[in-house]
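Forwarding these from the shared drive since the link keeps breaking.
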Amino acid sequence: MTATTLRKSIMLAAPREKVWDFLTQPEHLAKWFHAPKTPLTEGMAFEMFGAQSGDKMIWGNVRIARAPEYLEYTFTISPMGGAVSVVKWQLEAVEGGTRLSLEHEGLPESAEAFGLLMALDKGWDGHLGDLRDLMHA
C-alpha cells in the first residue's frame, strides 16, 4: 500500500445482487455516481458522463466483473494528465446486507498531485454517502 491508495468501506442494508446493479447498470450509476452509456461489462471500455453537465468525467476498461462479488476497472480523469489508476470493488455478504469495500490505487504520487488525491478522497466519500442514501431510502 502507498499513501496514494484510497480505501473505503460502507455497510448497506441490501443484498449483494442489488448493490452489484448499482455498481454496473447505467440507470443506477447515474443516481449516485456518473452515468455510462452501457453496463460495465468485463473486457469492455466505458465512459461515464456527469448527470447534470453531460460532460465526459471518467473513462477506462473493465478488467474483472465477477457478479455479485468483485468489480475492477481502470480509471482515468482529465486532471490525472493521462495517468491510469485502478478501482476495485469487493461486495461481501454480511448478516442483514452487504459490506461494500473500495480500493482506488495507482494514483499519482507527488506533492503536486496531493490536491487531486484529496479531491478524489472527498469525492468518493460523497458518492458512497449518496449510494448509502439510495439503498436505504
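-- next protein --
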Amino acid sequence: MRKDPARNYTLDSLCSTAGMSRTVFHKSFTAAYGCSPLVLLRDMRLKKAEELLTQTDLPIKTIAARLGYRSRSYFWSAFKQAYGSDPDSYASCLRG
C-alpha cells in the first residue's frame, strides 16, 4: 500500500496477497498497525495528498486521481474531514 497508494485495494485483495483468511488478516493487521487496512490506506493517501498540495502546483483533480480517488468530491470530503479544511484552502494557507 505504501508503494502504490493509488491502486484499488480491497480487503479481499490484501488477504489474498498475504495468504490469509479475511478474519485472520484483519485481526493481525489491526494488532500490528492499530487500525484496519483500509483506514491505514486512507490515512496514507491523505498524508501524500497533503505533501503534494503543499509542495507542488498540481490541480486537486490530478492529486486525487494520483492517489486513487475516483471522485474529486469524495477526496475533497475525506481531506476536509481529516484536516479540518478543504484542499484548496489548506494549500493556499501553507503556501502563503
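Residues 77 and 86 are 7 Å apart (CA to CA). DSSP finds six helices and no strands in the chain.

- D.
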